[in-house]
Amino acid sequence: MKGSSRSKGRSRGGKARNVLPGFGLSMGFAIVYLSLIVLIPLASVFIKTTGLSFAEFWGTVTNPRVLASYRISFFTAFSAAAVNMVFGLLIAWVLVRYRFPGKKFIDSLVDLPFALPTAVAGIALTAIYAPNGWMGKLLQPLGLKVAYTPLGITIALIFIGIPFVVRTVQPVLQDLNKEIEEAAVMLGAYRMRTFWKVILPELMPALLTGFALAFARGIGEYGSVVFISGNMPMKTEIAPLLIMTKLEQFDYAGATAIALVMLVVSFLLLLFINFMQWRINRRVVEGG
Amino acid sequence: MAGAITTHLSSEASKRPKHITEPALVRIVLITIALIFLALVVLLPLVSVFVEAFKKGFDVYRAAITDPDALSALRLTLLVAVIAVPLNTLFGISAAWAISKFRFRGKQFLITLIDLPFAVSPVISGLIYILMFGAQGFFGPWLDSHGIQLVFALPGIVLATVFVTVPFIARELIPLMQAQGVAEEEAAASLGAKGWQIFWRVTYPNIKWGLLYGIILCNARAMGEFGAVSVVSGHIRGQTNTLPLHIEILYNEYQFSASFAVASLLVMLAFVTLIVKSLMEWQMNKRASAQIV
Amino acid sequence: MLKGKWSISLLLVLVLILSACGANGGNQGTGAGAGESPAASTEASAAGEKPAEPVKLLNVSYDPTRELYEEYNKAFSTYWKNKTGQDVTISQSHGGSGKQARAVIDGLKADVVTLALGYDIDSLVEPGLLSADWQSKFEHNSSPYTSTIVFLVRKGNPKGIKVWNDLIKDGVEVITPNPQTSGGARWNYLAAWGYALKQNNNDEAKAQEFITQLFKHVPVLDTGARGATTTFVEKGIGDVLLAWENEAFLSIKELGPDQFEIVYPSVSILAEPPVAVVDKNAEANKSTEVAKAYLEYLYSDEGQEIAAKNYYRPINETIAAKYADTFKKLDLLTIDGDFGGWKAAQEKHFNAGGIFEKIYTPGS
C-alpha cells in the first residue's frame, strides 16, 4: 500500500502510540456519531420485531414466499458478485498493468454506478433489456429473455457491484511486489503458472473482500431491481420488495422481521470481510 | 469502499520488464474483453440515459431541467449533500484517526459497524428512521408534542442520506492511514507539535488524495440516493422531492424524456466531480515532479 | 501542505458554486425549507384571526390523480380567494395509495387525503387521525367521483379480448400491478373475482380457480398502477392491461390514440376513490374550514366538470349526462354490496395467508 515502506514493522507495534494526542476526542466523536446515526436507528428494527412472538416471527420469515425471495436475492446477488469477481479482476488488471488510450476515462467510468441513482439505473437497464429495447431486440430472437427474469436482476446487480471489486483489487495489484514475479520467472515458471500460483493467492483476500461487498450490496438492493425484475412472487420477487409489500399493508412487525434476517446476514458477511481485510493487513506487515 | 485505497494510476506500475508481462496479443485480448464488459455493463446504461434525454429534442430537455419543481429538487439535493458530506467527512477523519493510530480491543467490530450501511438494504435504511421518529415511532409522540417534524421533512432526508453515506470517507481513509503507520506523527509529537499541527502538517498531506476521493464518492452517493430517501421524503412536490425522486415522478407522469433529462443532470454532476479530481491529481503530480527536478 | 489545502478549498468552492446555482433557481419554486411548513403556518394563522391570513393545504393523494388535482387546485384557489379573500396554497404528494396512507400514519402532515380506496383511509382511524365515521362526512360515501376497471388492448384488439373469460385463453398475457402493493390492482382483482362468482353461481372454489388462472397469465407484476401502464405501453409487454378507466383514457391521450383501444367488460366494479379531511392535522394547522371547503368544492359543478375532463366519472347527474358519450353504462358491482366492505375483502384476499397469496404458494 502507499507509503507502507516507510513504517512497516512499526505500524502495529509499540506502546509509544500514547504519544499521539486526540484518541479520546476522535474515538468519542466517532462512537457517538455512529451510535446516533447507525446503531440506535438499527436497534429499532430489533425492538419492533420483539412485538412478535417467536412463533409469529418464525412463521413470517419461513413463509414459502419469503423463503423464495431470500433464495432469489441470495442467488442473483451471488451470481452477480461471482461475475464481478472475474471481470472486476480483469478490469483492475488491465487498468493497473497495461497502457492504452483513454485509460483515465475508463478508470473514472468504474465509479459511476455509485453516483447514478439506483432508480435511474433500473429504468435505463429495463429500457435496454426489455423485449423492445436495444439489447432486448438482439437477444429476443436467440430465445434469451433478460428483463423480468432472474437474469435481469443479476445484470442490475452486476452494474451496482462492479466498482466494489475493481476498487478493492486495484490498490493491492498496484502494490504487488515485482520481485516475487521475477523470482517465479527465474525459477522457470510459465506466465500462467506464475499467475495461478503466485499472483492470484496474493490477490485472493482482496478479491474475496470485493466479492463479499458486492454480494452484501446486492442482497439489499431495491431501486434498480424493482423495475427490471418483474416482481413475480416465488420467481423474481426479491426480499427488499417483500419488506415494502408488508409495509404497504401496514404490517410493520412482519416487515421488520424480514428486515432483521437480512440485517443479521449482512452483518455476518461484513464481519467476514473485515476478517479478510485484517489478514491482508497482517500479511503486508509481515511481508515488510 | 472497504479497503479501497486511492490509486492514481501511476505510470510506474504499467512500465514492466518484458519477462513479467504478457505477450502483446494477450494484452490486447484482455484489454478488449475488459472494455467490452464495461461498455455493456456501465457505458450502455449511461448512453441510454442521454439518448432518451434528447429523444424529444433540446427544448424538451431544457424545459425539463429548468422546471421550477426540478430546480427546487436540485436545490434540495445540493442542500442535503452540503450538510451530509461535511458531517461524514468529520466522522471519517475522526474514526480513521482513532482506528489507525491507536490500539484498542474490538477494532474489527467497530470497522464492521462502519461498513454496515453499505450492506443494509436502502428500504431498511429509510424504515429505521420512520420507526424512530415517525408519528407512531419511539420518539414520535414526544417530537409531535413539541412541534418538531423530522421525517417527511428536510431533517429526515438528511439523516437517511447521512446513514447511507457514512462508510465512504472513513473506509477510504482507514487502510490508507493504517498503511502509513505512526512513525511520522510520533516524530512530530516528539518535536513538540500539537494535535492539530500534527494532523495538518504530517497526516493530512499523506491522506489528501484518499480524503478527496472519499469526499467525491460520498458526495456522488449523497446526491443520488433514492431508496432510503424515498421512504422518508413524503414526496411533497416542490418541497421534499430530491432529484432522484423527481426523476421517478416524471417517469410516472409519462414524461420519459424529461425524467431522463433530469437523470442526465445527475450523471453530469458526477462526471464534473470526477473530472475535477483528475485535474487536481494531474496538477499535483506535475508540481511534485517539478519539485523533484 | 499548502498545495493540499488548495485542493480541498477548490472542492469547497465547487460545492458552493453548485449550491449557489441551485439557490438562484430555487427561488422560483417553493423553498425546501417550507418542508416544515405546517408548524410555521400554524403560528402564522394563530397570530391573527383574520381570514385574509394565507393558508397552506397538503393533499396526499395516489398516483393517477396528478393531472386531476393539478387542475383542480388552481380552480379551488381562485374560487376560495374570490369567496373569502384568503390565499390558499395547495401542495400535492402522490404515490401508491397504501404507501401514502402509511406516510400519513407515520407523520406526513396531510390536511386532506384523497386515496384509491376506503381501506387505506380506514387505516388512519386507529392512530386517531380521523373519526371512524369519516365516510359519512361527505355525500355519496365521500366519493366525489368514481371510476371503474376496464381492459386496455392494442389497436384492433388482435387477441379478440371482449370478456373476462378471454383473459385466460391460451397465449393471452395480462398486465396488472400487484394487489398487495397497489390500490388500483385491488379493484382489478375484485372485479375479476366478482365476475367469476357471478358466472359460477357464487361457487367460491371456482372463482378461486379463475383468479389463479388469471394470474398465471400475468408475466410482470408491477408495484403500482403507473408502473404497470408503462410496462404495457412503453415496453410493449402483454396483450391486455387491466386499468382504471381514467388511466386507460389518459394513456390513450398521452401516448397514442392510434395504438390502443378500450374494451368494456360485461361486468366490472364501481371504484370509489374516497376523500377525507385528516381532522387531527387540519386542526393543528388551523385549516379545518378550508380543508372541508376544498373537498366540498369537488362536488360543485366546476369540480365535477374538472373530474369528468380528467376521465373520472362525475356523480352529478347533469354533468354525467354531458359526458355520457365518454362513460359507457356498465353493470357494476360495489364493494359494500358484493364484498361486505373493505375490511372483509382485505382480510379474505390480500392479507398474509389470503387467497391472493395462495395463488403463488399452493398448498400453504
Automatic annotation (TrEMBL), chain A:
Transmembrane segments: 20-47, 72-96, 108-130, 142-166, 195-216, 252-273
Membrane topology of this protein: Multi-pass membrane protein
Pfam families in alphabetical order: BPD_transp_1
Swiss-Prot/TrEMBL keywords: Membrane, Sulfate transport, Transmembrane, Transmembrane helix, Transport
Domain ABC transmembrane type-1: 70-273
Location, primary (coarse class): membrane
PROSITE patterns: ABC_TM1 (PS50928)
GO-annotated molecular function: ABC-type sulfate transporter activity
InterPro entries, alphabetized: CysT_permease, MetI-like, MetI-like_sf, Sulph_transpt2
One GO CC annotation: plasma membrane
SUPFAM superfamilies noted in UniProt: MetI-like
Keyword Transport carried by entry: yes
Subcellular localization(s) per the UniProt record: Membrane
Family: Belongs to the binding-protein-dependent transport system permease family. CysTW subfamily.
Function: Part of the ABC transporter complex (TC 3.A.1.6.1) involved in sulfate/thiosulfate import. Part of the ABC transporter complex CysAWTP (TC 3.A.1.6.1) involved in sulfate/thiosulfate import. Probably responsible for the translocation of the substrate across the membrane.
Quaternary organization: The complex is composed of two ATP-binding proteins (CysA), two transmembrane proteins (CysT and CysW) and a solute-binding protein (CysP).
PANTHER family on file: SULFATE TRANSPORT SYSTEM PERMEASE PROTEIN, SULFATE TRANSPORT SYSTEM PERMEASE PROTEIN CYST
Name of the protein this chain belongs to: Sulfate transport system permease protein CysT
Native source species: Paenibacillus algorifonticola
Origin organism lineage: Bacteria, Bacillati, Bacillota, Bacilli, Bacillales
UniProtKB/TrEMBL annotation, chain B:
InterPro entries: CysW_permease, MetI-like, MetI-like_sf, Sulph_transpt2
UniProt key word Membrane: yes
All copies of domain ABC transmembrane type-1, residue ranges: 74-277
Topology class, membrane: Multi-pass membrane protein
CDD domains: TM_PBP2 (cd06261)
Keywords: Cell inner membrane, Cell membrane, Membrane, Sulfate transport, Transmembrane, Transmembrane helix, Transport
Subunit composition and interactions: The complex is composed of two ATP-binding proteins (CysA), two transmembrane proteins (CysT and CysW) and a solute-binding protein (CysP).
Purpose: Part of the ABC transporter complex CysAWTP (TC 3.A.1.6.1) involved in sulfate/thiosulfate import. Probably responsible for the translocation of the substrate across the membrane.
Protein name: Sulfate transport system permease protein CysW
Organism of this sequence: Paenibacillus algorifonticola
Lineage start: Bacteria, Bacillati, Bacillota, Bacilli, Bacillales
From TrEMBL, chain C:
Transmembrane segments annotated in the record for this chain: none
GO terms for MF: molecular carrier activity
Name of the protein: Sulfate-binding protein
Protein family (similarity comment): Belongs to the prokaryotic sulfate-binding protein family.
Signal peptide limits: 1-25
Matches recorded under InterPro entries: Sulphate/thiosulphate-bd_CS (IPR000957), Thiosulph/SO4-bd (IPR005669)
Subcellular location: Periplasm
GO cellular component: periplasmic space
Any Gene Ontology biological process: sulfate transmembrane transport
Any Pfam family hit: SBP_bac_11
Region named Disordered: 29-51
Function statement: This protein specifically binds sulfate and is involved in its transmembrane transport.
Main location: periplasm
